Amino acid sequence: MIDLPSQTYGNGGRPIPNPSQESTIRRKAEKRAGVEKLKKQAAKDAGLIVQDKPIPAKTETLVRERDNNTCKVCGLTLGEIRPDGSVVKSIHVDHIVPRASGGTNCDTNLRCACDKCNLGRGARRAIVIEPPPPKPEVSPEDKALLAEKSAHLRDELADKPKRST
Questions:
Q1: pTM (predicted TM-score)
Q2: Residue burial 127-162, b: 16+ Cβ < 10 Å; e: rest
Q3: Which of 28, 33, 118, 147 is deepest in the core (most CB within 10 A)?
């Protein structure tokens, strides 16, 4: 086995710094970290960065129960198959107005969204589309009347002679 000098190899091909250079490297890294910290604080002060606070567990549970753990964008639940053939792998609690745009963790700004509907939009504002109202239930009497009328129309059409073209 060939013994390679540890000064030039063993750090991903990059030279390993001498112990005398370590203090200089450490000072530069600390200075760089301090500058980054100052830049981040200035961006926060200017309102460009929103402190990312996690959604409280109580609020998340409330939203999941309210939305029946169903995606409010596409209407699918966990494990269902999308029209493109993929499977819904997870349901997220999603901000309607993103935190980066001033949205809050209030339950009125949260909704359930499947992985594809949530992760695809990033920090863009959600388009809220209300689902169509449920179809009214048809009474048994109305069903019988509709069946009778459709049978009558079928008979009329069957009695008419076909036109030749």
A1: 0.46
A2: eeeeeeeeeeeeeeeeeeeeeeeeeeeeeeeeeeee
A3: 118
